[in-house]
Specification:
Layout: H1 2-10, H2 14-26, H3 29-35, H4 40-54, E1 59-61, E2 66-68, H5 70-94, E3 100-106, H6 108-113, H7 115-125, E4 129-135, H8 138-146, E5 152-156, E6 164-169, E7 171-175, E8 187-192, H9 197-208, E9 213-219, H10 222-230, E10 236-239, E11 248-249, E12 262-268, H11 275-288
Parallel strand pairs: 3-4, 3-5, 8-9
Antiparallel strand pairs: 1-2, 5-12, 6-12, 7-10, 7-11
Helix pairs in contact: 2-3, 2-4, 2-5, 3-4, 7-11
Amino acid sequence: MIIQDFQKIMQLDHVLLRTFIASIEAMSFTRAAAAIHKSPATVSTQIARLEAEIGKPLFIRDTRNLSLTRTGEELEAYARRILRLHDEAVETFRRPEMVGRIRIGAPEDYISTLLPPVLRRFGRLFPRVEIEMTCAQSTALLPEIATGKLDLAIVTRSPGVGGQLIRREKMVWISSRERIALERRPLPVALFEPGSQARSAVLAALARSNIPFRAAYQSVSQLALLTLVEAGLAVAAVTRISVPSTVTQLGADDGLPEVAPLDVVLVRGSSSNNPVCNALADSVLESSATISSPVGSLPVS
């Protein structure tokens, strides 16, 4: 019986699995049909074929909604893995083998949050490409791009900086869990280095408010800024994607002004017009937009 079930799984058609996943994401055969450019009848037929292969129903159907059965929930995880491996295999064998070296730079918070899934996928597709990484603030990376010392850089957009938009990041205020610095006046604020767009955005927001404040600390390091906040020495405004669970994200009731969001962009150097750099640039733009800000587990006052 186990061998027969295994043979059934091995015969699953990736086309049927793709229709199955589309139906889950739409929770409607009609909407799924539009998403994958098939007729609703075709989608219903393909789901019925998949259920016949599995031997159990995958959806609970009523007149208004779809929901997954226990079998459907179990199959979903396998289906996503099968389709991901299928797509990676197709992409790998369609692409020419590439060799070379890429020099890419980004601030430490973007490196730790945006780049891991990008580099993981890129490394699987192009294992012979050497990647040289530079960790620095945007203000230090832009001159490196201008002089050709870097091929690609992920930076915060500032006046006069072009590049391709990766994502728009919300700025949020943070304090220690004990909220020590928040109660002090003038309000002690930790800032990034002069010239950074994040610093300019924070100072502009504070200037619009009636809150007395002092620039108590400044640093080029995101980690140093977070350490100062966690120690209760200051509050700070940082990108939401970089907020750790060791601090408290402040809310609208705390009276701090809203800070303008930052545009995260990909900029390219003069030497980046080659297939290797194009491939990594494409991976950055495709992957980074899907990354969620890790705010769900944060304590919010």
